[in-house]
Sequence to fold (55 residues):
Amino acid sequence: MTEQDLLDEAKARANIATQKMNEQFHNESVKSDIDEVQQIEERVESWPQTYGILK
Fold:
């Protein structure tokens, strides 16, 4: 292997690692958004009891 081959392989591995980190961050971000939406839905469902609103 030449020095250029080693550099090319290192760059490819770094790109793969970066891609995996970005995917993980995206997945965690989406999960956080879903959790937030669920919390909002739960609060909205409780409004009739909280504010005495009749359905």
User: Anything to note?
Assistant: The mean pLDDT is 91.
